[in-house]
Amino acid sequence: MSIRIESLKKEIKPLSDQILNHSIYESIKTVEDLRIFMKYHVYAVWDFMSLLKALQTNLTCTTFPWYPVGTPDTRFLINEIVVGEESDVDMNNIRKSHFEIYIAAMNQVDADYKGIMQFIEQLKKGSDFPTAYAVSEVPDAARKFVDQTFAIIHSGEVHSMAAAFTFGREDLIPGMFMSMVNDLHDHNPNTISIFKYYLERHIEVDGDHHSHLAIAMTEQLCGEDDAKWKAATDASIAALKSRISLWDAALNEILN
After folding, report:
1. Contact between 163 and 218 (Cβ < 8 Å)
2. How far apart (Å, rounded) are the C-alpha atoms in residues 190 and 28?
3. What contacts 7, CB < 8 A, 6 or more positions away?
4. Which among 135, 143, 94 has a CA at the least distance from the CA of 117?
5. Are 85 and 93 in contact (CB under 8 A)?
6. Do residues 99 and 82 lie in contact, with contact meaning Cβ atoms separated by under 8 Å?
7. What global pTM score does this model have?
């Protein structure tokens, strides 16, 4: 790992640690608590895919007529990540995106996923984000989280998108959270099994192989440009702060 990456990781470590040690994890003691958590978390799962597709759009040719875009190495990195995220397998070895697996987990645990699906339908119909938020009654913290992600997307700075994707991503899952999920699963195997699978698959694929690919992609995009590394660090910090605010809101609802 390069000195540049090490420096970035050192700068964002306090925020990463804050997420890993957040009180949200120990507050989830029942299936009802988990339902509340998932109602917020699902928006992070969804806009993670939007950030990924923005990267693919900028780093590869996704239109026709086709022509080479960027470097072959970067194309390979982003396309491999897309394949894994957009067309993985569920518990029954059926092809699904990680988002679709998460929705199945919400359905199994009887969490409210109608809001996120209505939000997506509004966007598909051409509604702008404020309208889609209002119609779907998206929680305020989730709105702010998604807005922050799309602010990075609309910045057009691919290196910033890559950094937010790499260091503000979903692999910040502490061991204590997995222990909690395992305990809930032991008592509710027919309710938690898909969510447990989602987390295990996420850690296996995203937290290891995809994480290494994403770091390599960020390094390639920033190169030796000091301004790009500064922007990448700022984007990572913004993404992590946004995640903390989302966790704070979910925690507040659980406690109340």
Report:
1. yes
2. 18
3. 229
4. 135
5. no
6. no
7. 0.93
DSSP string, 168-182: SSTT---HHHHHHHH
Q: How far apart are CA 243 and CA 241, in angstroms?
A: 5
Alpha-carbon distances, residue 113 vs 38, 104, 223 (angstroms): 9, 9, 41
Q: Tell me, what amino acid is at 31? A: V
As a dihedral over the C-alpha atoms of residue 237, residue 55, residue 120, residue 105, rounded to 10 degrees, the angle is -70
Quick: pLDDT tens for 17-64. 999 899 999 899 999 999 999 999 999 999 999 999 999 999 999 999
Q: Counting beta carbons within 10 angstroms of the beta carbon of residue 203, is it exposed (0 to 12), middle (13 to 18) or buried (19 or more)?
A: middle
- Distance, in Å, from the CA atom of 251 to the CA atom of 23, rounded to the nearest integer, reads 7
- Name the H helices within the chain: 3-20, 24-27, 31-59, 72-86, 98-109, 114-124, 129-136, 140-155, 158-167, 175-187, 189-204, 211-222, 226-255
In whole angstroms, give the CA distance from residue 90 to residue 98.
Answer: 8
- Label residue 128 exposed, middle or buried (CB < 10 Å: 0-12, 13-18, 19+): exposed
232-244 burial, b at 16+ Cβ within 10 Å, e below that, comes to bbbbbbbbbbbbe
Rounded Cα–Cα distance for residues 125 and 67 (Å) = 30
Place of tokens 């702010």: 144
114-148 tens-digit pLDDT: 999 999 999 999 999 999 999 999 999 999 999 99
Q: Which residue type is seen at 245?
A: S
| DSSP annotation of 70 | S
Is 80 buried (19+), middle (13-18) or exposed (0-12) by CB count in 10 A?
Answer: middle
Distance CA 29, CA 243 (A): 21
| Amino acid present at 223 | G
